[in-house]
Amino acid sequence: MELPEVVAKLVEIHQHDQQESGKDDADKVTPSCCPLTDLKGFDSLLIPSTIRRLAREFGHPLPKGTRVKNIYCGPDGRKKLTIREIAQRFVATYAPEVSKV
Prior knowledge:
This protein is an all-alpha fold. It has a single domain (3-94), classed as Non-ribosomal Peptide Synthetase Peptidyl Carrier Protein, Chain A. Helices cover 45% and strands 0% of the residues. It is globular. The chain starts with a helix and ends in a 7-residue tail after the last helix. The model has no long low-confidence stretch (mean pLDDT 90).
């Protein structure tokens, strides 16, 4: 799983979700978009399902019961990240070659 693929898939997932929920900001979803601040209706409650979906899309679903980390914020828990930064954290945390789950 390569970073550019993860970025593209994350953009695709967020665009799809914005369209499905009737939001008019799907065109705002880019690698530099910050979902927690730029996308209407997206909040921290949606993070676990989004991360699980992303993992499934790459053929490596997270095992049932796995506690999903909030990779949408920086390590300090305060800075809200862009899609590109989220993808970097996803690869570092959940890529099969580094994942401990």
